[in-house]
Structures are given as structure tokens and as C-alpha cells.
Specification:
The protein is an alpha/beta fold and 729 residues long. Helix content is 39%, strand content 15%.
């Protein structure tokens, strides 16, 4: 058999030389989504293709990360120092720099199945080369695209005398691509699987831990342990918070939670934490804002508003930092186990995680272990803590020091002896979160690194074939096990628009432009319908834009959808909850109109009546006809005064000074997008003749304290005007 020992490198260039020598000059290179990209290796490979036109290079990946860049001179002045501080030492992706400049070489192609929302609008290369794919199909589609080289960053750790590697942030597709490549290799195709060690990664457990022979090459040198990409936190707005609070009422104690990325996911985590740790204020908010009054029936039926006594477990493609705050606050605490009999007994409340003689007896009764224990049974009982450590097993005899006990549990004396001398205290190998990948602010990586090994082992990183779908006894875990683990599943994701038929738009526009990608959303919606007690919850901001440019995200119809109408379930906007599953069309329309911004309700209702989809005499109930942004601001204001619902409840990388500037620039940008009347009102800014003392530190931060041109003088006046108008000075 061929030696599987990897080749170790200290130089990416030498590794690139050997990869080209092995697979040839037609290279289809696969990289993980997001954080897990081996940027130094990717850059070396890309540079080689730029230098040698005979190389045909294709990158297959998703979510190529970029440093934030401002769209105007003022935004660039604001972001410049922030980006320099936040990304100092981060190695950028050369192909993304060239993509933005329009200088990609002809012998290079980028194919992606997911992108940051809106990042590629009107970018021809990526729009043309986009691959629409479910996350669970990404590994298969990569193989179909001819991938022959894959690489990712990993970290290493010595465990029991052996150096092991963790795929850490990105085992979710790699775990399935690698065996597929090995099969092709056995058929004679040249393949290369590469790891680049970056010790800044947290060493994550679960299926993410692999041996060195998983890879053909391992690049390991201190210079490649560089800064990880820290995704800046977005502020949480009032509409975000309202959506998150509504969603928090649908999460059931003793349940399962999937959360998506972004401010809406953060708002949900905030709501869940408030529900558990400040329940009196939480209930008061629900009552004062009318949430219970309008939607109490569905909340009582599907979710709840009490604290989390049993807690919830996480089963999510993306491990967002919000989960760690839910861990800290005691919301996420329901333990799951990768074993069917144990999980079934726990679900049925026949056992707890405390080991007792009954635990062993029920496992025998369930057929999980034989009445006469085998070596395999002994290993299982020891692995999960039912038997304590230090016991040995030989020739059907359990040894505890000098004590020897027969493994025949049909004999009551033996059973009593085992109960007295062999049982552990609590079950081991409990899992609080199953995750596929992670990406977030640097604080997320620090929190993971600062965890004890025991705490980190409770986060089980695995394949999306495990977390994203229920069906099929895939190479990892059975459908039966996943169904048992994911009781009361609530799969929460964000979307762009919802049609009055219940279809959902999340990934693209009707002109074909790709906004982001399907990712795992369809997987989770489908899974929610497959689970006996699962529900899909899609969060949608009711309005986009402001002033005259405002438009409803609840629309009558749309020329592109991500989730078809027959998979409709819960939809939440800042104005409420629509329960659409199993409803007639007229009921769906009525429920969605109830949570539509009132500026657009009448027109949508009239359109539905003309299409004869709702009775011609239907009237929207009065309690749903005051859906205006200002009402939300008024409702939440008393709680903001008490310190609730801050813009960055989970921290931010911005300084206090930058937060003030950012708020003012956001206000200024909104004024400039609301039409000529607003723009002309900014003429007041031009009448400013002197610099207020309070504005000076903000102007210095923007390098506008000493404007050197007419353009900079104008920007200075606009900033002063914005600071004044927002009450910042």
C-alpha cells in the first residue's frame, strides 16, 4: 500500500511547485467557505498562474472575504484607520483585489456558490460564474467541477503523544470532499489535499479532528500563523430588535436552535438572553408593545415566554458568536449524545445525565448492550461515562483493582457488584452545539480559544451533511439519531422578500443578479418540515430604504424565489408573526398583510382582490393598521432609556468616537438618499462658518480638522451638520 505520510513544507512556493508537478497545469482548486481559506497558498498558486499563461487555474469556493471599503471619500476616511487597526497582519486574497480592479488574468476563473450579501451585484465575472447550490451539495458540485487540489487552514495539537489536526472553522464540506477525492485517486486521477497550519485557530473537536494522513501535504511554519479575518459586528436597529423579540417567543424550552448570521440573528440571541436572565422585563416588553396581545395564541402553541429550565441545544451550519453568549447565560444547556439508545432514554426522561444503576438496566432493556457484556459493550459504557475510568475488561471479567466481577448481568449478584464498583457519576461526551463552520469578530475566536478543553469539546464541529439535513444515513449519523437530537427544532434564517403566496426570496433578484446564495436555507426549511415537531422561521425586514425610496419587502409576486410556497411556514417582520403552514391562500394573504408596513397594505390588498385571491369585502383588522416605523421607535424607547436594546449589545470593534461618527454618517447618508428636498436642506451645512469645540476630536479622527481643499471643506461642514443634527455635539 502507498505510504500515506504527508510531505511537510515550510514554504508555500515549494508546495505549489510540487502540486503543479503532480496534478499538471490544469488546476481546479477547492477552498472552504469563509475563514478556512489558506490565503498564502491560494495567493502563491494565483501568482503562478499570472506568471505562466499555460496554467489554467480555477478556484471553486464560497464567501471570499474582503476588508471593508467605503463607497465615498467620507466613508473611506472613516473606515481607513478602523480597517488598518482591525486587519493589521491579515493576508488579503490577491484574486479578490484583482477582481475589484477588473484585472483577473484570462487563464483564471472564480466559481462561487455563496457570497457576502450584495458583494457581487453587477460584477460580471462572478455573476456569470455563480454556481447555485444547496450547501449539502457543495462537495458534490465541487467534484463535478473537476476539483483536483483542495486546501484549508488547520491547527495542530499533541494529544496522547500524537500530533492531531483540527479543521477547526471549516470541516463542513472538507469532510466530504476528501473521501470523494481519494476515490478518484484510486481510479488513477492525480489529486492533492493540503493543510496550512495557522495556530491562531481554536482547536475544535468533534469530526473536525483528523490525523496527519488526511493530507498529502502540510505547510507548517511560524510565518503562516497570521491574523484571522475578523468580521466586524453590525449594529442592531429597532426593526432588527423587534424581529428578534418576536422570534424569541417561538423558541421552545427543551428544543433545538439554528441561527443565521447578521444583525437579525444577533437580535434573536439578545431576545433569548433577555427572556432567560431578565424575564420580568422581557414579559413587560411583550405586553407593553402588544406582542402578546396580538400573537399570544401562536406563542403559547409553538414557543413560550418563560425562562429556559431544560435549555436548548444548538444544531447550526454556522456557529455564530451569539451561541457563546447563550452558553454563558444558561440558555444553551440541553445536552445531546451521539448515541441512539442514550438519546431516546433522555428524551423520554427515563434517565438523566446522572449515572445510576437504572441507567445500566435500561440500556440492557433497550438492547444497547448485551445482558452478558462484550468487549464492545464495555468500551461503549466506558466511553460515555456509565462505567468509570480505570476499569479493565478481559475474558468477560470486569476488573476494578483487585476486584473481579463477571460481565453476566443476568445474575443479580453480578449486577449489584457492577452497580457498587463500576458506575461513573455523570454521562460523558455530551454535546451542547453541533456546528458546521464558524466566522465572526475576533472576539469569537478569543472566546473559543479561552475556553477550557472540556468546554470546547461540547461544541461538536461536523459536516453539513450532518447538521443541515435530516434524511439519509450518511457516513456520520443516522436519521433516527438526528431526529432524536433535534426535538422541538426551530430553524431561524433571514430573507429578502416574501410574496403574498408565501414564497420567499433570499438569494437573488428577478433579473438574475445573485445577491448571496442559497447556502443552507433550503436545507433547514426542508428539515423543519421533515421533523415531527420542527418549524422553519424566516425573518424579513418589512421595509427597505427610507422616505420616498422606501419599498415593502412583502410583495404580491416576484420573478425569483428561493423557498417555494409549498414550504411556507413562519414569517416574521418587525410588525409581527405570520403562521403560514397549512393555510389557504386567502389566510396566507391576510396574515402577511397583518405584518406588512401600513404604507403598503392598501395597495397590496387591492392587488390581491383584483387577482381574486381574497374576498372583495375583506378589511385588514384595525389592530394591524398602525404598522409604522415611528410606532416601533416609540414602543421601544422606554426600554432603551433603561439600558436595553443598545446598538452593539455583544460588543464592537469601533471606538466610542467611531460609534458617534458612524451614527452621524449613517444619518447623513440617509438624508442624501431621500430626494432633492432633503439634499437641499443640507444647504444649511454650508452656512457653518466655525468649528464647534465638541466637533474637533471627530474631525481629527476623519482628518478633516485641517481641510486642504474645497472638497474637504465641504465634507467638514457636512460632518459638523450631521454631528449637530444627531445630537452628538
Amino acid at each position: 500500500m502507498e505510504d500515506k505520510t504527508p510531505v511537510y513544507y515550510q514554504d508555500v512556493e515549494k508546495c505549489v511547485d510540487d502540486v503543479i508537478s503532480k496534478v499538471g497545469k490544469n488546476i481546479v482548486f477547492g477552498m472552504p467557505l469563509g475563514l478556512g481559506k489558506p490565503n498564502q497558498f491560494a495567493n502563491a498558486l494565483y501568482r503562478r498562474a499570472k506568471e505562466d499563461p499555460s496554467i489554467q487555474l480555477t478556484f471553486c469556493t464560497a464567501l471570499s472575504l474582503e476588508k471593508p471599503k467605503g463607497s465615498s471619500d467620507l466613508e473611506q476616511k472613516f473606515l481607513g484607520p478602523f480597517v488598518e487597526r482591525l486587519f493589521d497582519g491579515y493576508v488579503e486574497l490577491d484574486y479578490m483585489l484583482d477582481l475589484r480592479k477588473g484585472t483577473l488574468p484570462e487563464n483564471f476563473e472564480l466559481r462561487e456558490f455563496y457570497a457576502k450579501a450584495g458583494a457581487y451585484i453587477n460584477v460580471d465575472h462572478t455573476q456569470m460564474n455563480y454556481i447555485s447550490s444547496n450547501y449539502t451539495h457543495a462537495w458534490r458540485d465541487s467534484i463535478d467541477n473537476g476539483v483536483n487540489v483542495v486546501a484549508q487552514i488547520v491547527c495542530k495539537k499533541e494529544i496522547d503523544g500524537e500530533i492531531l489536526y483540527s479543521m477547526s472553522c471549516n470541516p463542513e464540506v472538507s469532510l466530504d470532499v476528501s473521501p470523494a477525492l481519494r476515490e478518484l485517486e484510486e481510479q488513477g486521477r492525480q489529486m492533492s489535499i493540503i493543510a496550512l497550519v495557522n495556530q491562531n485557530l481554536p482547536f475544535m473537536y468533534g469530526d473536525a479532528v483528523v490525523k496527519s494522513d488526511e493530507f498529502d501535504a502540510i505547510i507548517d511554519a511560524p510565518e503562516y500563523t497570521t491574523r484571522l479575518f475578523g468580521a466586524p459586528k453590525m449594529s442592531i436597529t429597532t426593526p432588527d430588535y423587534m424581529i428578534g423579540m418576536y422570534a424569541s417567543t417561538l423558541i421552545k424550552d427543551n428544543g433545538t436552535l439554528q441561527i443565521g448570521i447578521g444583525s437579525l440573528g444577533d437580535a434573536l440571541c439578545y431576545g433569548l438572553r433577555m427572556r432567560h436572565t431578565q424575564n420580568a422585563e422581557y414579559i413587560k416588553f411583550l405586553n407593553d408593545t402588544g406582542i402578546v396581545g396580538k400573537f399570544g395564541n401562536v406563542i403559547d402553541r409553538i414557543g413560550g415566554t418563560d425562562t429556559f429550565d431544560d435549555g436548548i441545544t444548538g444544531s447550526t451550519e454556522m456557529l455564530v458568536d451569539g451561541y457563546l453568549y447563550l452558553l454563558e447565560s444558561g440558555v444553551v444547556k440541553r445536552k445531546t449524545y451521539n448515541n441512539v439508545p442514550l438519546q431516546r432514554l433522555l428524551n423520554d426522561k427515563k434517565i438523566t445525565d446522572k449515572v445510576t444503576p437504572k441507567t445500566l438496566a435500561l440500556l440492557v432493556e433497550e438492547g444497547a448492550v448485551s445482558p452478558v457484556l462484550t468487549a464492545k459493550d464495555f468500551d461503549f459504557l466506558t466511553e460515555y461515562g456509565i462505567f468509570k475510568e480505570g476499569l479493565t475488561f478481559e475474558n468477560s471479567i470486569i476488573k476494578n483493582g483487585e476486584t473481579e466481577i463477571s460481565a453476566d448481568l443476568t445474575d443479580s449478584k453480578n449486577l449489584d457488584q457492577v452497580a457498587s464498583h463500576c458506575l461513573g457519576d455523570v454521562l460523558k461526551k455530551d454535546i451542547l452545539i453541533h456546528g458546521g463552520f464558524f466566522l465572526g469578530p475576533e472576539s469569537l475566536y478569543k472566546m473559543l480559544n479561552d475556553m477550557s478543553e472540556e468546554e470546547r469539546k461540547k461544541i461538536f464541529m461536523t459536516s453539513v451533511l450532518n447538521v443541515n439535513q435530516l434524511y439519509g444515513n450518511n457516513p456520520y449519523y443516522s436519521e433516527e439519531l438526528k431526529t432524536l437530537q433535534r426535538i422541538n427544532g426551530r430553524f431561524v434564517n433571514a430573507c429578502l422578500m416574501v410574496t403574498l403566496s408565501g414564497a420567499v426570496v433570499s438569494d437573488g433578484l428577478e433579473n438574475g443578479q445573485v445577491v448571496s446564495g442559497v447556502g443552507g436555507q433550503y436545507n433547514f426549511v426542508s428539515q423543519a418540515h421533515a421533523l415531527p415537531d420542527g418549524r422553519s422561521i424566516l425573518m424579513c425586514k418589512g421595509v427597505r430604504g427610507a422616505g420616498k425610496s422606501a419599498a415593502s419587502n412583502i410583495v404580491f409576486n416576484y420573478g425569483h424565489v428561493t423557498i417555494p410556497r409549498h414550504l411556507r411556514d413562519f414569517v416574521i417582520t418587525e410588525y409581527g408573526i405570520a403562521d403560514l403552514r397549512g393555510k389557504m391562500d386567502k389566510e396566507i394573504i391576510a396574515q402577511l398583510l397583518n405584518i406588512t408596513d401600513s404604507r403598503f397594505q392598501d395597495e397590496l390588498l387591492e392587488t390581491a382582490k383584483k387577482a381574486r385571491k381574497i374576498p372583495s369585502d375583506y378589511i385588514i383588522p384595525d389592530q394591524f393598521k398602525n404598522n409604522y416605523p415611528q410606532r416601533l421607535e416609540d414602543a421601544i424607547a422606554p426600554f432603551k432609556e433603561k439600558g436595553f436594546f443598545e446598538p452593539f449589545p455583544f460588543g464592537t470593534d469601533f471606538t466610542d468616537e467611531e460609534l458617534v461618527i458612524g451614527k452621524s454618517l449613517k444619518w447623513l447618508k440617509a438624508q442624501m438618499t431621500e430626494g432633492l428636498s432633503k439634499v437641499s436642506s443640507l444647504g444649511k451645512a454650508m452656512t457653518i462658518m466655525s468649528v464647534p469645540e465638541g466637533a474637533k476630536p471627530y474631525l481629527e479622527r476623519l482628518q478633516l480638522d485641517r481641510p486642504g481643499s474645497a472638497k474637504e471643506k465641504m465634507m467638514q461642514k457636512l460632518v459638523i451638520y450631521a454631528l449637530t443634527s444627531t445630537g452628538s455635539i
